[in-house]
Fold this protein.
Amino acid sequence: MKRDDVQKQIPGITKEQLDWLMGENGRDITAEKEKAQALQADLDNANQQLKTAQEGLKAFEGVNVGELQGQIASLRAEMAEQADSFAFDSALDGAIRDAKGRDVKAIRGMLDLDALKASRDRTADIKTALEALSKEKAWAFGEDSAAYPAVRDGGSPAGTPSGSPAEQFAAWFAQAT
């Protein structure tokens, strides 16, 4: 709106009235421009986000979702099987140690692992299998102590040698004869 146009439309308008009218009009125009700029910025931002999303989706073109879901299910089953196997191995090794097995690997080789894995009550079946094996092959179970050998060498597992080496040798020689 121009001053000349307002003066032509409203003859006899005073300068104060015209200044007020032009000021109000200017404030209205400025407010509307600011709203339009804000809306334009929102539109530009939305367009940029849309463009980014479209570019991101291009990476998934040609991907078979059903195939991916099948792979995920397969991996989950494999992980569950591994977890079950780990739990079985831990339980079996612990039971062998509790039964005082001398060699865990050797004892595992003597057991029917497939039957024990397939068992519904693994704990009881492992215990039963180990008890049967300990009766059959008692040598594989028991305390594995590195006992002092029963050899006449003049030494004592609890004793501390005293005297000179010559005196120790003489004492040993006296015991040996």
Observations:
- Residues 3-55 form one domain.
- Helices lie at 3-9, 15-58, 65-98, 104-110, 113-118, 122-136, 165-176.
